[in-house]
Amino acid sequence: MEGYLEEALACLDDRDAGVVAICGMAGVGKSTLLRGINNVFVQDPDRRHEFDYVIWLDEPSDCAIDKLQDTLAHQLGLCAFPDGGVPDHRARPIFEVLRNASFLLLLDGLTKPVDLVDIGVPHLVHDDSRKQKVAMTTRTRGVSGRMSSSRRIDMQCFDSDHSWSLFRAVARDEKINADPRILDLAKEVAGRCGGLPLALTAISSAMRCRKQPEEWVSTESYDDLRHPVLQECFLTTSMWPEDHAIDKDELVDCWIGLGLVGESLPMDEAMRTGLAVVNELEEANLQQPGDAACEVKLHGVMRATALWIARDLGKAPNRWVVHTGGVSLRSRQKLAEFFERARDAERHSAALRDIPGGFLLGLPALTYLDASFTGVREVPPEIGTLASLRYLNLSSTPLESVPPELGKLRQLRHLLLRHTARLSAIPAGVLRGLPSLDVLDVCPSRYTDLCGAGGGASLDEVRSSSAFVRSLGIAVATLTGLRTLCGLDNVRTRRLLVTPVAATAPSVALRPSVLSLLEALHELTVAKCSGLQELEVAGEEDNTWWRLPELRKLEIDELRELRTVRWTRTDVGAFLPALRWVKISHCNRLRSVSWVVQLPCLEQLELSHCTEMVHVVDVDDEEEEQLHTFRCLRRLLLVALPLMSSISGGAAMSFPRLETLEIAGCGSLGGLHGFV
């Protein structure tokens, strides 16, 4: 790797080299080399002043110019662009910042060419006053050529000597040399990695704790998983695109839907069991940590391994069929015929717009259907013939309706309709016909309150159902709907969107009498209550025990008149003992959020587009001499807060675990005064 790094640095020093392309197969170390380049110009005291900006961009899977512009603008400290802006207009402020600056733009993982001019990058110049360079990684030389790269570095797999050196360094020499039999086996294992750095690192890490020769006979991390369920859980991760950030909760939802984990457990216990599996897969080096604490990634090499095992190695031909395009389905090999047309798309393909009814007629044994993030607008009535279907995910689609025949799926346990903005109703009788329903999520959608309007299904239908819904996601728009929801004794609400309840009322008080049955709530969003000025969380004398013990995420959005969140007869930390993520945006009248410092488990705080916010913690609300400690906070994001003058208002603040601090569009912020 050192040789490649020296070559790359030499190319960047060459005045005639504008774009430097790094090419090679998955796992060969392209991203590692790019990170090495980044570190040289960010950390090396002799070279860190060569560029005014060192900018890292991960290419989005769809090569969307607007997403690249958003990321670039954020790293340059520009204000966020309005949604739907014209790309040329968005490119102008980026161009103005970069044209007279020295910069190094690092593009990781290009799958197709990107026009740098469209993004806002000026024509690259290297003279006495400016040094403007681009370094990029790609698997294909064609992308390199079409990006007009003037220098190309072709990375190759390691030869046997370098492979063995890397393997020994990671697996540790003293353990390999402790037994001659282990030494021979270790050489054999290293040879099987084919000189691929990622495979060498992953496998040698997994072998590092093995002390007996017998343990080295099983050479794959996959084979080392102690239980077949863990192996199946690993295989499911191949349904996501490589290097894609996978939300841990979404992954566990998939496992629960397949019956792999927590089938008979309460939802919270099932989720905890699933997250323990995620941790075990990470420890086995089969998954990588994601960019956020709530995410994991599957590297291309590991995904290819999972696909190989799933397609060719299983004894049962019907066990797993994973398709790289369109949707992910658990059934027979014949499914490939239908989804072949989506081959060039990622797992969630917007190109897929319909599911032919005749196709479903031939799949009576289908148990798992995931068509989320596709262009599907309607589900054919033939869905009712899938008598064995247990899991149906149509989230993040332009779905407008579901057929009454959906109510025939008596084995259906998971029905996920999240982020279906066009869905206005579920036909009456459908929910009553799903006696096995375990998870129902229609949040957010136009279908609020499940009020039965227009002949649709209602909350009363859920109440009369024989099912016990362990996890409900729903939006409510009236206090009546909220009270009805809280009165359902066969439902545990996990995700709740309150919008626009009491939109014209200046104050809303949340009391135990209203929310006493929401102890399973995991995510709460309060949004678009336009007239709300005060949100009060009020305890009652005979209900001092009241709390939301499982709430992990709280979002407050577009409460444009909100001035205060008031806590009455309620201890914030005791009320929200497990809250990890708070996101507050577009609350224009809110001046501070001092109460967040009392949250004992807060890991991520995001404040954005609150035009009158002055402090995070206001000394008017807290004693000035008190040391305020965010004990668990790892990420603090402050965006588009034009009046924020200080984070603490003069009070001393301690962030012992802070890993990421992002500030953009906070022009009045004079510094980080008060940090301890």
TrEMBL record:
<dbReference type="InterPro" id="IPR027417">
    <property type="entry name" value="P-loop_NTPase"/>
</dbReference>
<dbReference type="Pfam" id="PF00931">
    <property type="entry name" value="NB-ARC"/>
</dbReference>
<keyword id="KW-0547">Nucleotide-binding</keyword>
<keyword id="KW-0611">Plant defense</keyword>
<feature type="domain" description="Disease resistance R13L4/SHOC-2-like LRR">
    <location>
        <begin position="363"/>
        <end position="663"/>
    </location>
</feature>
<dbReference type="InterPro" id="IPR050905">
    <property type="entry name" value="Plant_NBS-LRR"/>
</dbReference>
<keyword id="KW-0067">ATP-binding</keyword>
<dbReference type="InterPro" id="IPR032675">
    <property type="entry name" value="LRR_dom_sf"/>
</dbReference>
<feature type="domain" description="NB-ARC">
    <location>
        <begin position="5"/>
        <end position="174"/>
    </location>
</feature>
<dbReference type="Pfam" id="PF23598">
    <property type="entry name" value="LRR_14"/>
</dbReference>
<comment type="similarity">
    <text>Belongs to the disease resistance NB-LRR family.</text>
</comment>
<protein>
    <submittedName>
        <fullName>Uncharacterized protein</fullName>
    </submittedName>
</protein>
<dbReference type="InterPro" id="IPR055414">
    <property type="entry name" value="LRR_R13L4/SHOC2-like"/>
</dbReference>
<keyword id="KW-0677">Repeat</keyword>
<dbReference type="GO" id="GO:0006952">
    <property type="term" value="P:defense response"/>
</dbReference>
<dbReference type="InterPro" id="IPR042197">
    <property type="entry name" value="Apaf_helical"/>
</dbReference>
<dbReference type="GO" id="GO:0005524">
    <property type="term" value="F:ATP binding"/>
</dbReference>
<dbReference type="InterPro" id="IPR002182">
    <property type="entry name" value="NB-ARC"/>
</dbReference>
<dbReference type="GO" id="GO:0043531">
    <property type="term" value="F:ADP binding"/>
</dbReference>
